Amino acid sequence: MTLTWLLILTVVGVFVFDFTNGFHDTANLIATAVASRAMRPIPAVVIAAVFTLLGPLIAGTAVADTVGQIVTLDGMPAIAAVTVVLAALAGAITWNIGTWLFGIPSSSSHALVGALCGTTLVTRGASGIHWGLGSEGLTGVARVTITLLVSPVLGMIAGFLAQRLARLALRRATPRINGPIKHLQVVGTALMAFSHGANDAQKSMGVLTLVLLLSGHLDRFVVPTWVVFLCAAAITSGTVLGGWRIVKTLGFGIYRLRPIHALNVQLASGGVILGAAFFGGPVSTTHVVSSAVMGVGAAERPRGVRWQKARDIAWTWLVTIPGAGIAAIVWWWIASHLFSL
Fold it and tell me: In angstroms, what CA-CA distances link 229 with 49, 119, 236, 237?
C-alpha cells in the first residue's frame, strides 16, 4: 500500500475515532441539561457543536501538542510510522465501540493514549515513548497521566463545593428559582462545550498532525486549521447520531438531577476541563462530568448516589489504557501482515 492511501485511511480513521468519541465525550456536554429538562436535545446539540468548534480556535491547541508528542516515531520509514498511528486509532475505536454497546462512559482520552503506547511499545520499545520524567519538566506520558488522574478528583470536589455553596445561597429561595436556573444552563452548556473543544476534542488533532509530520507534509508540529475543523465536525456528528446511551447513564444513572444540580455540574466540570486545557493536559470529559455529578449528589444526599454505577465507571477507567493498548497491538499485527511491514 502506498503512503498516500495510508494517509487517506488515517484521515478516515481520525474522523471515525472522533465520531465514536462523540458517543462518549460530547454527549456529556448535554446530558445534564437534557436530564433536568432545561433544554431539548436538538438545541443542546447545536450549542454543543458551536462552542466545541470555537474552543480550539480561540483557546489554542496546547493539548493537541501534548498528545502529538507522547510517542517518538522518528527514524522509522514513513509507511511504517503512519501504520503505527493507524493501528492505534483502530484500537481506540474498537474500545470506544465496545464500551458504547454496554452504555459505559469510558474515556476516549485513555483509549487513545493506551493505544498509541501499545503500538509504539511493540515497534520501537520503551524508548519510543516520551515518558516525560527527565529534566525538561512535566511532559509526555507523565503530564497526561497526572491530568487524567487528578481531574476526576478535582471534578468531584468542585461539584461538591458548588452544590454546598448553591444550597447556602438559595436556602430561602422558592421553586420559582428553577426558571432562571434553567436559562443559566444554556450558559453552562456553552461553557462545557467550549472547554471540551479547548481540551478533549484536541486529541485526534494532535494525532493527525503527527501523521502529517511523519509523512513529510509538515516541517514542524503545528495543527493546521483544516484539521481543527475536520475533528470538531466529526466529534459533533457522533453526538447527534449516537451518544444518547451515555446521556442516559450520566443524566439519570448516577444521581437524579434537578436544575440546580445540573447547573453546578456544568460549572464545576467546565472549569476543571478548561483549566487542564491551559495546562496542556488532556482529560476525560466523561470522568470529569461523572465525578462532578457524584460530588453534587454527595453534597446533598450521599445515599441517593448510585455508587455501583460509579464503581463501574472507575473499573472502566482502570482497564481502558491496557485494554485499548492490547486492541491496538492486535490491529498492528493485522496491518503489518497485510502491508508486509
Answer: 11, 27, 11, 12
User: How far, CA to CA in Å, does 205 sit from each of 231, 237, 337?
Assistant: 6, 16, 28
Query: Helix 285-300 vs helix 140-169: angle between axes, to the nearest 10 degrees?
Result: 30
Cβ proximity of 287 and 276 under 8 Å: no
The whole-angstrom separation of Cα 38 and Cα 47 is 13
Instruction: Report residue 324 as a C-alpha cell.
Output: 485499548
- The model's confidence at residue 87, banded by pLDDT at 50, 70 and 90, is very high
Three-state SS for 78-136 is HHHHHHHHHHHHHHHHHHHHHHHHCCCCCCHHHHHHHHHHHHHHHHHCHHHECCCCCCC
Query: Is the CB of residue 247 less than 8 Å from the CB of residue 30?
Result: yes
- Residues ≥6 apart with Cβ < 8 Å to 70: 113, 116, 117, 129, 130, 140, 141, 144
CA distance 26 to 263: 17
pTM of the complete model: 0.83
pLDDT in tens, 241-292: 655 555 555 555 677 778 898 899 999 999 999 898 888 888 888 788 888 9
> Residues 175-206: pLDDT tens digits?
888 889 988 999 998 998 888 878 877 888 88
Indicate the burial class of 266 (C-beta count within 10 angstroms; 0-12, 13-18, 19 or more): buried
Q: State the residue for C-alpha cell 474515556.
A: 107
Handedness of CA 208, 213, 218, 220 (dihedral sign): positive
- Comparing CA positions, the residue from 89, 64, 78 lying closest to residue 9 is 89
**What's the confidence (pLDDT) of residue 332?**
94
Most distant CA atoms of the chain, gap in Å:
71
Would you place residue 123 in the very low, low, confident or very high pLDDT band (cuts 50, 70, 90)?
very high
